[in-house]
Write a structure and sequence with these properties.
Blueprint: H1 3-14, H2 19-36, H3 45-58, H4 63-80, H5 87-90, H6 106-113, H7 119-131, H8 135-139, E1 146-147, E2 152-155, E3 164-167, H9 170-183, H10 201-215, H11 223-232
Antiparallel strand pairs: 1-2, 2-3
Helix pairs in contact: 1-4, 2-4, 3-4, 7-9, 7-11
Length: 249
């Protein structure tokens, strides 16, 4: 590990950036340096501009992906390398198009969830839909986070390392209790294959992709799109109520 990378990681840890953000920033800076074949400290504003043009014209990357690269370079040059730049002027970022999500109907959500074969995967995806959780938040839930008396779910260190409470619907509580009685998971509500670790988001995303194919639904379906469906649905539902989960009261 180079001294610059070590210093950048230290700077991100001091500022309590999320682990995924740290990994993404390091990767983006590495791609930038490899593109020019030089260490980042030898590169400057002209190279950053040329790199943004390359990502936009040649790679045709989405605005959201370019924004991640820009954020990483802004952090590197203004925080770690302490360049006296005007960020908005010297490392600009493009505007992201504002598009409405392709939201699933309640019937489509039920059809999709009924196509998820594993109860564990189905429950995780149901939580994303019924409580509006990100998949990374759902897989890191512990049994104690389900507060049935208050009818809330405690989400610890969500996006931005922020804790928050979300509402727990009676139907989702029923699903969680049934899951609990069937599996008795232990430390993590959704344990993974590795001892002492929760299930990975990749495993859930793969199960989601496979279930979408089985369901026959043509709309794109991801754990995050289920979260969008929660935001747009007047009354989120839970599929397979007879296979639902529940945490001990």
């Amino acid at each position: 590990m180079t001294p610059l990378r070590r210093r950048m990681i230290d700077d991100m840890q001091i500022r309590n950036l999320a682990p995924l953000t740290q990994t993404s920033y390091v990767q983006q800076v590495s791609l930038f340096a490899r593109h020019f074949g030089q260490p980042p400290e030898r590169l400057g504003r002209e190279e950053i501009r040329a790199y943004q043009i390359y990502l936009t014209r040649d790679k045709q990357m989405a605005a959201s992906s370019i924004a991640v690269a820009v954020a990483a370079l802004r952090f590197l040059y203004t925080v770690t390398l302490k360049r006296d730049w005007i960020v908005q002027k010297d490392i600009p970022t493009g505007r992201r198009p504002q598009k409405l999500p392709d939201v699933l109907s309640q019937e489509e959500v039920a059809q999709f969830l009924n196509s998820v074969r594993s109860q564990k995967h189905r429950v995780i995806l149901t939580i994303c839909y019924s409580a509006g959780l990100r998949v990374s938040e759902a897989v890191h839930l512990k049994p104690a986070a389900i507060e049935s008396r208050r009818m809330v779910i405690r989400v610890e260190e969500g996006k931005g390392r922020k804790d928050r409470y979300v509402m727990l619907s009676p139907s989702l509580l029923h699903i969680l209790r049934d899951y609990w009685k069937r599996t008795h998971p232990g430390e993590w509500l959704f344990p993974g294959d590795r001892p002492g670790q929760p299930i990975s988001t990749c495993a859930v995303e793969l199960a989601c992709s496979q279930a979408r194919k089985r369901s026959g639904i043509t709309k794109p379906i991801t754990p995050h799109s289920l979260r969008h469906a929660f935001c747009w649905s007047p009354a989120p539902i839970c599929a397979r109520s007879n296979c639902c989960l529940v945490i001990a009261a």
